[in-house]
Amino acid sequence: MTDPYRFEEEVEGWVSSKELDGGLVRVRITIDASAVTARAEDGKEFRIPWHEVRLEMGGANGRVLFCHAPGKRFSIYSDDRSFERGVEGSGGNEIADQLARLAGERVTTRARHLASCAGCLIVTVAALYWGVRSCFSTASGVAERATSAVVDQVPYSIDEEIGSALAESVGTGLAVVDDPLVLEPLRAMVERLAPHRSLPQATFNVRLVRDATPNAFALPGGYITVFTGLIASAERPEQVAGVLAHEMAHVTRRHQIRRIVQSLGVLIGSEAILGDAQGLLDVGKELFTLATINDYSQRAEAEADAEGIRMLHAAGIDPSGLPEYFAILRDEHGDVSEALSWMSTHPMHAERIRATREQIAELGASDGYAGFDLDWEAVRERARR
């Protein structure tokens, strides 16, 4: 008689790791009596022995099974039901107990999810259909506009939920700075910029951390982290304001959520529209690490530059600070430095300097630009400590 729990087939799945290009790779998963093993097309292997496996259940459909292990820098996961069956059949009593606990949690979550979805299913399907149908032009255009159609329908509250969950975990170990002499100028810059944001419901929270790298990054929902190295390297406050405007633009243009949807396709994004943010939240936790948080496309970077310039001009802040800071980075670190995580995938500095200066010229000179009432050299000196 065939044992229904004997696992003999391979299933498709994913491995997420900040050490991977893009943070995510498709794999073939096999299970035997000793471990869960995943292999990528390039031959790279990921293995978790049963005694180390920790399970989580999530995904927008509530059926994605995640295998983690303490100390390992990757996760293996799949929504193929054969994967769950194989884990249950081969993992032993402890794994079976973990699955039983997850099953109880899933029943509650899915019941709540189905109740919330019933009223909006037709509207959502129609929105996705017409959004994707209207963008049919070229293969790349279809993918880009299909993603936009989904992201436009995802409530901004999901951005906030993901950002809130990640704010405590991303960058764990960084030294948070509470010095008001350095922190308050950043908050003042954001307060001047925020009224001119393109997404009215967006709010912003600034955190300062002590690190000599000239760096800044934004999480979904408006959580912005600034490194003291950014302040120390800026010759005037308008340059830091330019970087903040750029990061705020990533938030208001929702580039982080777009990246998640692009990674998994429109299906998981469409399910999030139905009120279950768990899928995007689970994937967001896997993708958004300190090493990969700013892995935006060059198109997204150019868009954030342009939107940042617009916000600066509207706020009465001299927008030339942004191309000035690009020039500082170019002169100090070369055209692109791998050490600068927020610059590593950006367009070349020379191109960004040219594009932002042209935009500023098109906006025209303004007599309304107002500086910041602070001793910038004192702020820089404090940031260097």
Task: Describe the protein in words.
The chain has 385 residues and is of the alpha+beta class. It folds into three domains: 11-116, Roll (PH-domain like); 119-153, no CATH class; 157-384, no CATH class. The chain is 51% helix and 15% strand. The protein is built from 15 helices and eleven strands. The protein has helices at 81-90, 92-117, 121-134, 139-153, 156-167, 180-193, 228-233, 237-252, 255-264, 266-273, 278-287, 298-314, 321-333, 349-363, 376-384; strands at residues 11-16, 24-31, 35-40, 45-49, 54-58, 64-68, 75-78, 175-176, 205-210, 216-219, 223-227. It has a seven-stranded antiparallel beta sheet with strand order 4-3-2-1-7-6-5. It has a four-stranded mixed beta sheet with strand order 8-9-11-10. α8 (237-252) crosses α13. The longest helix has 26 residues, at 92-117. The radius of gyration is 23 Å and the shape is elongated. Residues 1-7, 106-140 and 337-346 have low confidence and may be disordered.
Please indicate the percent range of residues in DSSP E strands (runs of 2 or more): 5-15%
Low-confidence runs of at least 5 consecutive residues? 1-7, 106-140, 337-346
For the CA atoms, what is the radius of gyration?
23 Å
The helix content, as a percent range, equals: 40-55%
DSSP E strands, number:
11
How many DSSP H or I helices? 15
What is the number of domains? 3
**What would you call the shape?**
elongated
Mean pLDDT: 78
Element pattern in H and E: EEEEEEEHHHHHEHEEEHHHHHHHHH
**What class, by secondary structure content?**
alpha+beta
